[in-house]
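Appendix B, record 7
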Amino acid sequence: MFKTLKDPQLLMGPLVGRRKESPGLAVANDLGVETTIEGLAYFEADPDGYDIVFDATSADSHLVHAPVLSALGATVVDLTPAKLGPYCVPAINLGDLTNQKNVNMVTCGGQATIPLIRAISDCCEEIEYVEIVSAISSDSAGQATRENIDKYITTTEDAIKQLSKARSAKTILNINPAVPQVVMQSTIFITAGRIDLDKVVDSAHKAAESVRAYVPGYEVAVEPRLRSTREVVLSVRVRGSGDYLPSHAGNLDIINCAAIAAAKALTQFEKSS
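C-alpha cells (predicted):
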C-alpha cells in the first residue's frame, strides 16, 4: 500500500482484508485509503473496479483466490509461494511476462539471489548445484511466512532451477530472533564448471545494479570468491526503504518492490493493448 501510494504510475484502490481487527486496515483508514473486510466478495461485487490485484495472503489462500480472480478477468501479482503463474524476477524476465494474467513473485530469497545466480551462470560452463542460505529477522516473518516455509523452500528451489538452468538447488532459511534485529542477508554457494572469477565479479555487480533500479537497498555484501576451482561463494544484503516496515525487514521490502515493478509493467501492457 505504501509503495503504491508513493508511485506516480499507480493509483491505490481499496485495501481488501478479511478481519475487522486487522492493524493494516486501521493504518489504511487513518491515511484515508478505502478499506473493506469483504475479501473475495469485494472483487466479485465490482469486477471492473481495479486493474491489478496484489495477493499478499498465503500460498494456500491464493489457491482459493486465483480461480475466482481469473474468472473475473483480473490481473494478479501473487506475492505468495503458490507458484500458479510464471515466475517473475523483474531484473531477469519482466519483459517476457507483460501479457500474463497471474505472475508469481517467487519468494524474498528468490528475488534476492536469482538475479546473481543467473548472472553467474552466464560466466560458467554449467551450474551443477546452487545452495542459498538466507537469514531474516524473526519480527519480519509473520504468520503466513511461517506457515509457508515448506512452500517457500520448494518454490525458491524450483525458480532457481528454472531461471538459472542450475541442475539442482537447495534453500535454507534462518529466522533469527537476535536483538538488535539482523538485516536480511543471503549467501550463495555455486558449484560449476570453468569459473572465470573476474567475469563472475563483474557480472554480479552488473546484476546488483539492475536490481537496485527497483530495490534501492540491494547490495553485494561479500564479493564473489573461489572456495575451490569449481565453487564460488558470495553474499547479498537487502535493507528495506522504511516506507512502513523497519529497514531491517529487507526480505519484505524486496518482494514488495519486485511486485510494484511487475504491476507497473503489467499496467503499461494493458494500456498499450
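Remarks on this record: The chain has ten helices and ten strands. The two ends are 26 Å apart (CA to CA).
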